Amino acid sequence: MTRTRSLATGFLSLSAAAVLALTSAGGATAAPAEDKASPSVTSTVVDAAGVADYWTADRMQSAIPGDVLAGKALERGNRSNAGLVEKGKKSEVKATKGKPTIAQSEAPVKHIGKVFFTLAGSNYVCSGNAVTSANESTVSTAGHCLNEGPGAFATNFAFVPAYENGAEPYGKWTAKSLHAPTQWSANGDMAYDTGFAVMNTLNGQTLTDVVGGSGVAFNEARGLTYKSFGYPAASPFNGQTLKSCTGTATNDPNNPQFGTQGIPCDMTGGSSGGPWFIGTSSSGVQNSVNSYGYNRSAVMYGPYWGSVIQQTYASAATS
């Protein structure tokens, strides 16, 4: 197993719902390029000009929960039963009236935040987490929160740590490059639904200098206990505050070919990309992300972080 140790701990939050089909400000990206040091990684340089201003309070509030993009990836030919994977659609994982939710409310965590981005002319919101890295500027999220899988990389990509009920205590951090496993960017393979973004400095400081960062772990044993975090926005949640789920991971029985694991969790759209920490707190090392769930099933699945996702992290962390 491989682990990278933590720099610190921290804060987070925010939004979702409705469709917004606007693009402008800082939209250009370079053509995706295979990482020469690791052919398993695809990356792109993004234009950050105007991105912070683009994400007004209204645009953040009306951004679409990014979980729907996982379903779109499946429709483009992923090797699974596309009819099953529906996390993020507003009709799914609806709580029974009067039944308590599994997800628990959390105080903001400094290094956990909201991810905002544009794909195919629509604005989306996901969750993300600042992780320890050589460049002190790396954020983890789901692959479908930065690349169509397969398809184009996102534009207008921003990370807002500690966002809660409209507050942005640490500002908006814009991306300078996005990194995804080639298996995701070329094939939309749910087994590799993880991506990493490298952020620009803000006011002369690097991201983890300001908010800290989680350690990361790869090639760990299966069946561990995890605590996951995210910002679910579909009913019964509103996307304004941080939620968490804790449980022991089990294999996905519906699509075992993914090699993914799930924990009891009823978080809905907007929670995509939120971190999974080994153990029962946000101070653990990160070892997966919220990826997808099934209709009427209160289980959240995340990809196994093996050598390919480790290479993707390394590509981002040293860029």
Protein architecture, described:
With 319 residues, the chain is of the alpha+beta class. A 6-stranded antiparallel barrel has the order 6-7-8-11-10-9. It has a 5-stranded antiparallel β-sheet with strand order 5-14-13-17-18, with no helix packed on it. The chain has a 4-stranded antiparallel β-sheet with strand order 15-16-20-19, with no helix packed on it. It is 13% helix and 30% strand. It has one domain: Trypsin-like serine proteases (Thrombin, subunit H, Beta Barrel), CATH 2.40.10.10. This is V8-like Glu-specific endopeptidase. Keywords: Signal. InterPro entries: Glutamyl_endopeptidase (IPR050966), Peptidase_S1_PA (IPR009003), Peptidase_S1_PA_chymotrypsin (IPR043504).
Q: Report low-confidence residues grouped into runs of 5 or more.
A: 4-32, 81-98
Helix-residue proportion? 10-25%
Mean pLDDT: 84
**Structural shape:** globular
What is the number of E strands?
Answer: 20
| Estimated share of beta-strand residues | 25-35%
Keywords: Signal
Protein name: V8-like Glu-specific endopeptidase
Signal peptide: 1-30
InterPro entries: Glutamyl_endopeptidase, Peptidase_S1_PA, Peptidase_S1_PA_chymotrypsin
Keywords:
Peptidase_S1_PA, Thrombin, subunit H, six-stranded antiparallel beta barrel, globular, alpha+beta, Peptidase_S1_PA_chymotrypsin, Glutamyl_endopeptidase, single chain, V8-like Glu-specific endopeptidase, five-stranded antiparallel beta sheet, 6 helices, 319 residues
Note the topology.
Layout lengths: L1 E3 L28 E3 L2 E8 L5 H4 L2 H6 L1 E2 L2 H8 L28 E2 L6 E8 L2 E10 L6 E4 L13 E7 L11 E9 H6 L7 E5 L7 H5 L4 E3 L6 E6 L12 E6 L1 E2 L9 E4 L10 E4 L7 E4 L2 E2 L5 E4 L4 H11 L2
